[in-house]
Design a protein that fits this description.
alpha/beta, FAD/NAD(P)-binding domain, 2 domains, 5-stranded parallel sheet, 23 strands, 31% helix, globular, disordered N terminus
Length: 601
């Protein structure tokens, strides 16, 4: 059967050889220290999380007041939560954000070339409501950040926002049925309800490379881009680098976007790679005004639903988005190519693997067609399954390696050996550089409360980290027993979708309904029952998409906990039936009307 795909399409590759190659590439990258290979940004490294974008520190008196709802986190999840609450008449809402402005991920990520790889017409929420049309199919960071501020202004969120403010402590007061929230601004405010929107991409991480603190040159992390050193702006023209030898460590989604700009400006650019990314066609283009004229009311929701269906494996009549995501997932998951044939369900995983091989062969062939030097081209080829790492889409990254001033330092999966005062060592060779840029991502695999920066204390003195020590426990991903009037907006136990903002908005509307009902009925407390929480945990485990074998076979990365899939993966996962089924669950729960599983008092 491996000689043909669906008995129709002859294979032009050897599946057994690819399986062997994938395993070899994975095995050379496995490290015993897993996530511990990265340094927590604290102590002597704390400067890496300083906010370089704040021009003036906010000085204000500490707040000791009370509000109806506190929303922690000013990214899209927090903005949508506040907006939907205000739409149902809940006005006394305060957002707390550690950045100098709202925006979350899009406040911090201002590196040159930063953009979203999900189509702007579905990724930017509330376009229709705010009468805004994105400038191009894929939006750059500055436009996304501006849209965040547009939402904040629309809902008057700034009027009661605490910016440059970090929550340090949060504790339930049984005597008042309030949450006491303390911050680094000496605030001690109270709230009836708290919505936690602490995203996974807010806490940068550094590689634990030997000698990292001995380097005498300039360093910074991509999420805190130092334009005072590089010059230029988010569009490039990094003119202060013209006489500089620059190193960048990491070749993931961030590097893909900023490396072409570094290469265009630096005297020399050294790219240190442990594992190459999968780079597919991006094909960005300006928004067509004629297309806009023909849009009908409800166009954005229709487009979002269509994308969600296409990327969830449903066969859609028409793919409205037609991008890399719908193409990849359409071919690998929907099995559309097998329509009209009888397929043995037991054969589906094998057929999907073959379709995956075929797709990745085309990705590797694209490298050969663009990169001129055969050795460099070979090093840039990804040998792993498509969703072992986040797929990337870019049209300028691969051609950059044809520049004479750009040098790919492939570490053959080992990573950088060490750093000394002058530069970076790989296999005993020293690369002397003026600047090292860390494109090493965010703490995705660490605990929720560590990433949040605080640990809520619920009833009877139990902390959230204690509550979740043996796995995440919620109802519908929002409610946690022993933590009344507290809600979480995250990915675990919810409907994971490639377009994060779609899911955030569904959750925001759901919570606005719950909080609105509580206030309407004069309820002081709302808490999930132990039985309802356990039932949802059981369902999450029962419908879990068992991908342990797939993840274990993947090259290490944050998707598979650096090659060590967690034993709690099933319990800590998203809803296994997918976002459409999850959204329908929430709709049915609200329509039933009894707040089933929640105790109100």
């Amino acid at each position: 059967m491996d000689k043909q795909l669906n008995n129709q399409e002859a294979l032009n590759f050897d599946p057994d050889a690819l399986r062997k190659k994938y395993k070899e590439e994975r095995d050379k990258r496995i490290r015993k220290d897993g996530n511990n290979q990265y340094k927590e940004i604290a102590g002597e490294f704390s400067n890496y999380i300083d906010d370089p974008y704040v021009k003036e520190k906010i000085v204000r008196p500490p707040l000791h007041d009370e509000v109806e709802v506190v929303v922690i986190g000013g990214g899209f999840a927090g903005l949508l939560a506040v907006g939907r609450l205000k739409e149902v008449g809940i006005k006394n809402v305060r957002i707390i954000e550690k950045g100098g402005d709202i925006g979350g991920t899009w406040y911090w990520n201002r590196y040159p070339g930063a953009a979203c790889d999900t189509e702007a017409y579905i990724y930017l929420p509330l376009c229709e409501e705010l009468n805004y049309m994105p400038k191009s199919k894929y939006a750059y960071a500055s436009e996304i950040f501006a849209h965040c501020k547009r939402i904040a202004n629309h809902y008057n969120i700034y009027d009661n926002a605490c910016l440059q403010t970090e929550v340090t402590d949060m504790e339930w007061e049984a005597s008042t049925s309030r949450w006491l929230i303390k911050t680094n601004q000496q605030d001690a405010m109270r709230a009836k309800f708290v919505i936690m929107c602490n995203g996974p991409f807010n806490r940068p991480k550094l590689p634990g490379i030997q000698g990292i603190s001995t380097y005498k040159g300039h360093t910074f992390h991509t999420s805190r881009w130092d334009y005072s050193y590089t010059g230029g702006d988010a569009k490039g023209n990094l003119n202060k680098l013209k006489d500089k030898k620059v190193a960048i460590i990491g070749t993931g989604a961030t590097s893909i976007q900023c490396i072409p700009h570094l290469a265009a400006s630096a005297k020399e650019l050294y790219v240190f790679q442990r594992t190459p990314s999968s780079i597919d066609v991006r094909d960005n283009r300006p928004t067509d005004p004629e297309w806009v004229k023909n849009l009908q009311p409800g166009w954005q929701k229709e487009r979002m639903d269509n994308f969600n269906e296409a990327t969830s494996g449903k066969i859609v009549e028409k793919d409205l988005v037609m991008d890399g995501w719908t193409e990849i997932i359409g071919s690998l998951v929907s099995l559309a190519k097998f329509r009209g044939t009888e397929i043995n369900p037991a054969e589906i995983p094998r057929l999907m693997e073959l379709a995956d091989f075929k797709k990745m062969e085309s990705i590797r062939a694209r490298v050969d067609s663009i990169v001129k030097d055969p050795k460099t081209a070979e090093a840039l080829k990804p040998y792993y399954r498509q969703f072992c790492k986040r797929p990337c889409f870019h049209d300028e990254y691969l051609p950059t390696f044809n520049r004479p001033n750009v040098f790919l330092i492939d570490t053959d999966g080992k990573g950088v050996q060490s750093i000394n005062e002058q530069g970076i060592l790989v296999e005993g060779q020293l690369y002397e550089v003026d600047c090292i840029i860390f494109a090493t991502g965010f703490e995705v695999g660490t605990g929720y409360t560590r990433r949040a920066g605080y640990d809520p204390i619920g009833k009877n003195g139990i902390s959230l980290s204690q509550k979740w020590a043996n796995g995440i426990r919620t109802l519908h991903s929002f409610h946690v027993h022993d933590f009344p009037n507290m809600f979480v907006i995250g990915h675990a136990h919810g409907g994971y979708t490639t377009s994060y903002t779609h899911c955030f908005d569904v959750k925001a509307k759901h919570l606005s309904y719950i909080i609105g009902e509580c206030l309407k009925k004069g309820m002081k407390e709302i808490e999930v029952t132990p039985e309802a929480e356990q039932a949802w945990v059981d369902e999450i485990i029962r419908v879990h998409r068992n991908q342990e074998a797939f993840q274990a076979a993947c090259t290490p990365g944050y998707y598979n906990n650096e090659g060590n899939p967690s034993q709690l993966a099933a319990q800590n996962s998203a809803y296994g039936k997918g976002p459409i089924a999850y959204f329908e669950k929430l709709d049915a729960w609200r329509e039933e009307g009894s707040m089933k599983g929640l105790k109100l008092s």
